[in-house]
TrEMBL record:
Cofactor annotation: pyridoxal 5'-phosphate
Protein name per UniProt: PLP-dependent aminotransferase family protein
Keywords, sorted A to Z: Aminotransferase, Pyridoxal phosphate, Transferase
Span of the signal peptide: none
A Pfam family that the UniProt record links to this protein: Aminotran_1_2
Molecular function as annotated in GO: transaminase activity
Superkingdom of origin organism: Bacteria
PANTHER family: AMINOTRANSFERASE (PTHR42790), KYNURENINE_ALPHA-AMINOADIPATE AMINOTRANSFERASE, MITOCHONDRIAL (PTHR42790:SF19)
InterPro entries (UniProt xref): Aminotransferase_I/II_large, Class-I_PLP-dep_aminotransf, PyrdxlP-dep_Trfase, PyrdxlP-dep_Trfase_major, PyrdxlP-dep_Trfase_small
Cross-referenced SUPFAM superfamilies: PLP-dependent transferases
Aminotransferase class I/classII large domain residues: 63-384
Length: 396
């Protein structure tokens, strides 16, 4: 087929840069690019036992078709988990998805016509842009601040713009690591009520806080049905399971479920049942605590290396959870150029330059560094190599 025959959406989705995140292992020695969890922490043996138990002794027909809502015992588990965190929802409000990523696609599919407006954080999650762009919206970019997106600017823009939804990663944002303050969460909900838009709350890092106090989810603060929230087992169990969940009002959820029917019929029953079995037979809280401890150490190694090697003129965020740290360079630095021309080919180190994390691709002096998947030694060595390459750039 000739490319001119492709749907117009292909133009918007073909240049997201998402394919650069998982490097070819032959070319790269150290990668801070993809948001890959530390694979030493996957509970492989426990999951193997659960899969075996479900397949050999399960009574809920794990190899059969089921309905799209998802496995009832797993929805019940999630309902109780959310209740313990202050979010009260019914079982009819929970849908199991193939990762949070599917939730992003389904919500965009539900709400967006071509040229509808979506407000996004700037910078934002690259996979959010990839999912939404297929529906060809126009983006309103709201700059990120250390305590979350600039809600005052959003409020100003809402007086002259109608948006379908606002997309936010409120906890340990991908890519900055920033957390939205309680005051901003409340203000955002008030704005959603006043201007009638949905808040799409994408919260895969919520359980990976290793310092500071948990804040209530937007879903917990809202009593008016304006929030659709997404969760995921990818970062707290394993991304290969492709298992996440979506929470919305029953009306919205019914529509979303019909769209899911058309996409994939259902989230694999065997995965849902095996994960439920894992949750029943293991101490999941203790598992999180191990992850939190591990990622704190990774963050500390990266902060220490940056403090030691980073040339003047650069700053970096100090996240209290999650996977990512945000590097901010002087305005005249182009980190994408430096990565492609020097750091990747010569030093064999990878990170995500900021360019692809803005819809307008207009910010080139920042980068997302993931500390989650690399070893302590790789973090120290990789940061040293990056910083050595940054220094001459300051002379421009
Ligand atoms: N949202 C955010 C903010 C993410 O960082 C990721 C994974 N990198 C996803 C969604 C997708 O996660 P999942 O594996 O659950 O599809």
């Amino acid at each position: 087929m000739m490319t001119k025959e492709f749907a117009t959406r292909i133009q918007a989705t073909s240049q997201t840069g998402i394919e650069d995140l998982i490097p070819d292992p032959d070319d790269v020695t150290i990668s801070f690019a993809g948001g890959l969890p530390d694979e030493h922490l996957f509970p492989q043996a426990e999951l193997a036992t659960s899969f075996q138990r479900v397949l050999l002794k399960g009574t809920d027909n794990p190899l059969q078709y089921h309905n799209a809502k998802g496995y009832l015992p797993l929805r019940t588990y999630l309902q109780q988990m959310m209740a313990a965190e202050g979010t009260t929802v019914t079982l009819e409000q929970i849908l199991l998805t193939q990762g949070a990523q599917q939730g992003l696609d389904l919500v965009a599919k539900l709400l967006l016509n071509k040229h509808d407006k979506v407000a996004i954080e700037a910078p934002t999650y690259i996979g959010g842009l990839a999912a939404f762009s297929a529906y060809e919206p126009d983006y309103l970019e709201i700059p990120m601040q250390a305590d979350g997106l600039d809600v005052d600017l959003l409020e100003q823009l809402l007086t002259t713009n109608t948006i379908k939804f606002l997309y936010t990663v409120p906890n340990f944002q991908n890519p900055t690591g920033f957390v939205m303050s309680l005051a901003k969460r409340k203000k955002l909900i008030a704005l959603a009520k006043k201007y009638h838009f949905i808040i799409l709350e994408d919260d895969p890092y919520r359980h990976l806080r290793f310092a500071g106090e948990d804040l209530p989810a937007l879903q917990a603060l809202d009593n008016s049905g304006h929030v659709i929230s997404l969760g995921s087992f990818s970062k707290i169990l394993a991304p290969g399971l492709r298992l996440g969940w979506l929470v919305a009002t029953p009306d919205l959820l019914t529509e979303i479920r019909l769209l899911k029917d058309g996409s994939d019929l259902e989230t694999p029953a065997i995965i849902q049942q095996a994960v439920t079995d894992y949750l029943v037979h293991n101490d999941f809280q203790a598992h999180w605590q191990k992850l939190q401890q591990d990622y704190r150490e990774h963050r500390d190694w990266m902060s220490a290396a940056l403090t030691k090697y980073l040339p003047s003129g650069y700053q970096f965020s100090h996240p209290e959870g999650g996977f990512f740290l945000w590097l901010m360079g002087p305005n005249n630095v182009n980190l994408e150029h430096l990565l492609r021309e020097k750091i990747a080919p010569e030093n064999h180190v990878l990170f995500v330059p900021s360019t692809n994390l803005y819809a307008r691709k207009n910010v080139c002096n920042c980068a997302r560094l993931s500390y989650a998947g690399a070893t302590h030694e790789q973090i120290d060595r990789g940061i040293q190599l990056i910083c050595a390459a940054l220094t001459p750039e300051l002379e421009f």
